[in-house]
């Protein structure tokens, strides 16, 4: 099997592997290790990847995708940095793609979802003609996605975006997502309006329904109980509770659950140290008072 011109790249994604892409002879000659390329990944997404190796004779038992576009004429990452990122990935057991994503500025790793914001704070007049034309075309937008720029102006526009960002005409928008999702549980309380009619309770046929309602009626007016507590107390299914809600007998709501277990700790409780502990404590205190910065040596969990 004849080898082909290929490059190995790192994608700025939390993936612990690299990917190979094919390229033409002219592209192979011009590309350098450490340069950026735009590649397609998945069905429709484009990413800026970093080249970490190239080969003209590597063979593959599957057809490689071709790169979309070479971004850099010169490397933006040197070989020492590539080695450093690989070491970080191995030492800290972190996906290599995540290391690159964290280490490099967002501008260098634009992807199809990246949002380009028009800020027009540039003071330099030495924009290239192509960059000036691109800015004129998108300046009416407050913001535009990278993929839309590619669709409108072609793949080579990434170089122009670089130029416009560096000269303060555009800005790569940082998106911050709150990944914390509050934990909730279902809470039930009695609908007292239902029992304004004195005959309402007698209309209940199910013994389980009667037991649950009797329990609620014996409690204070605004008493509520969680779904799990009700199921455990009365040995019932979700269906029984759902029926009571549908009949408007019970009112159902969501309540946030505190993920942190709070306990009352007596911080003033006196601690009795052993003889050896007292010696160690006094030595530590003496060193800290004298030197302020102290390096401790000890066995883990000691």
Summed up:
This protein is of the alpha+beta class. 33% of the residues lie in helices and 20% in strands. It has three domains: 4-107, 3-Layer(aba) Sandwich (GIY-YIG endonuclease), CATH 3.40.1440; 113-172; 184-256.
Description:
- By secondary structure, the chain is α+β, with helices and mostly antiparallel strands.
- It has three domains: 4-107, PriA, 3(prime) DNA-binding domain (GIY-YIG endonuclease), CATH 3.40.1440; 113-172; 184-256.
- It has helices spanning 25-30, 79-91, 96-103, 129-138, 146-153, 157-166, 207-217, 227-234, 238-246, 275-291; strands at 4-10, 19-22, 36-41, 45-58, 69-70, 115-118, 143-145, 170-172, 184-190, 224-226, 250-256.
- The strands form three sheets. A five-stranded antiparallel sheet has the order 2-1-4-3-5.
- A hairpin with an 8-residue loop joins strand 1 (4-10) and strand 2.
- Helix 2 crosses helix 3 and helix 4 (129-138) crosses helix 6 (157-166).
- The longest helix has 17 residues, at 275-291.
- The radius of gyration is 32 Å and the shape is extended.
- The model has no long low-confidence stretch (mean pLDDT 83).
């Amino acid at each position: 099997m004849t080898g082909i011109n290929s490059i190995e790249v790192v994608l700025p994604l939390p993936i612990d592997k690299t990917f190979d892409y094919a390229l033409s002879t002219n592209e192979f000659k011009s590309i350098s290790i450490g340069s950026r390329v735009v590649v397609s990944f998945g069905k429709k997404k484009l990413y800026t990847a970093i080249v970490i190796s190239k080969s003209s004779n590597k063979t593959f038992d599957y057809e490689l995708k071709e790169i979309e576009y070479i971004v850099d004429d010169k490397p933006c990452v040197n070989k020492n940095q590539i080695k450093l990122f690989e070491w970080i990935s191995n030492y800290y057991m972190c996906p290599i793609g995540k290391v690159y994503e964290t280490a490099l500025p967002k501008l260098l790793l634009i992807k199809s979802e990246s949002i380009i914001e028009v800020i027009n704070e540039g003071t330099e007049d030495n924009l290239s003609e192509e960059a000036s034309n691109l800015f004129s075309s998108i300046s009416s937008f407050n913001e535009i996605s990278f993929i839309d720029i590619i669709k409108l102006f072609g793949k080579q526009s990434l170089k122009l975006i670089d130029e416009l960002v560096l000269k303060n005409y555009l800005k790569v928008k940082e998106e911050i997502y709150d990944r914390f999702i509050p934990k909730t549980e279902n809470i039930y309380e009695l609908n007292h309006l239902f029992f304004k009619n004195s005959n309402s309770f007698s209309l209940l046929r199910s013994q389980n329904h009667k037991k649950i309602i009797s329990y609620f009626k014996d409690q204070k007016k605004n008493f509520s109980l969680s779904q799990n507590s009700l199921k455990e107390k009365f040995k019932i299914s979700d269906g029984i509770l759902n029926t009571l809600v549908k009949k408007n007998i019970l009112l159902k709501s969501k309540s946030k659950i505190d993920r942190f277990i709070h306990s009352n700790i007596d911080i003033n409780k006196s601690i009795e140290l052993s003889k050896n502990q007292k010696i160690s404590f006094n030595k530590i205190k003496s060193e800290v008072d004298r030197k302020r910065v102290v390096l401790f040596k000890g066995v883990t969990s000691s």
